[in-house]
Amino acid sequence: MRAVVCDRLGGPSVLKVEERPVPEPGPSEIVIKVGAAGVNFPDVLTVAGSYQHKPELPFVPGMEGAGTVHAVGAEVGGWRPGDRVIFGVRPGAFAEYVKVSAKSPLLRLPDGWSYAEGAGFRVGAQTAYHSLVHRARLRKGEVLLVHGASGGVGLAAVQLGKHLGARVIATGSDDARLAIVKAEGADEVVNYRTADFVAAVKELTAGKGANVIYDPVGGEVLEKSMRAAAYGARLLVVGFTSGGPSRIMSNHVLIKALSILGVRAGETIQRLTPELGRDYVEELPRLAALGVMRPHISHRFPMERAADAFQALLDRKVVGKAVIEMG
Ligand SMILES: NC(=O)c1ccc[n+]([C@@H]2O[C@H](COP(=O)([O-])OP(=O)(O)OC[C@H]3O[C@@H](n4cnc5c(N)ncnc54)[C@H](OP(=O)(O)O)[C@@H]3O)[C@@H](O)[C@H]2O)c1
Q1: pLDDT, tens digit, for every residue of 148-197?
Q2: Which residues contact 324 (CB under 8 A, 6 or more apart)?
Q3: What is the pTM of this model?
Q4: FRET label pair with 121: which of 21, 149, 160, 284, CA 20 to 30 Å apart?
Q5: For a pocket test of ligand 1, which of 43, 241, 299 has the largest count of ligand atoms closer than 8 A to its C-beta?
Q6: Residue 216 belongs to a domain with what CATH number?
Q7: How confident is the model at residue 272 (pLDDT cuts 50, 70, 90)?
Q8: Is ligand 1 within 6 A of the CB of residue 150?
Q9: Does the C-beta of 172 come closer than 6 Å to ligand 1?
């Protein structure tokens, strides 16, 4: 089979396509023929060597995808060859076949979804769900501010926030991409390159601010967000696409009674708390079947152009998801 391989750490150009043996399933493993794999910012960071999870070289990148079950280990129940599934893996999705542990639950690919859509669902949906439902406990009627809203985890939060009954204000750096975010459900969009998002949020909320702030961007965006927060707001630290962490002003935390909540969706899935396990197996497929968080796919690449897929993320061109299709 063909696979995208990283044998040295660096920028997108280190990626190459190589021949590899088709994996065999162990007793509690499943081998999937991959139709498409989603490209996530953590893939770019992992290949650069700057992500918290550091696989041994050489490795096949990619943390999510969709395809058909090819072979099932002797101890695995519930799945049969030919089933259309959404999977997560750490890492290995950018290949024609991938072996996954039955401990990392598969989701059934909803009827009518393409492999590309399924490939772009899992990371965004589980991050948005874990953030808004488990961590922030977002309530109907609250104001949700989503930064980096045109990105994979950002757009899923816009879609889920709307479904949960929040008023969603979305920020981003480009009017054309923000127009798609609005079409996907945001009530208001703010371009933080051309407008002061703190002033905009204050104006839109009659001076009150946002109740929940979802931040995959980090740096000064989170620092400024403290000033856009309502009394008692919950701030979700999701990621750092701007390049680095933020300095949290503890006086703002005290004066406004803020809660700063770290989000580690993937790690929590690995640990499968009973609450998350149940929600992951029952609630995410239910939402997917309703069409909630159905991914917007703006870019599709063949395996040979995996480097271009990474570059599209770095150049902030992607809306929703870029995927690699196995052909
Ligand atoms: N905590 C968790 O469990 C978890 C899970 C998955 C991902 N993440 C993290 O979430 C973040 C977003 O991941 P993603 O896959 O959604 O990424 P993505 O699709 O590339 O979206 C990232 C967004 O960040 C914004 N951005 C701001 N500064 C940027 C810069 N210098 N370079 C690139 N983008 C920039 C862009 O929107 P604008 O240009 O409109 O600002 C872009 O749409 C990453 O830091 C990732 O590691 C965290």
Answers
A1: 999 999 999 999 999 999 999 999 999 999 999 999 999 999 999 999 99
A2: 4, 36, 37, 39, 62, 94, 300, 301, 302, 303, 305, 306, 309
A3: 0.95
A4: 21
A5: 241
A6: 3.90.180.10
A7: low
A8: yes
A9: yes
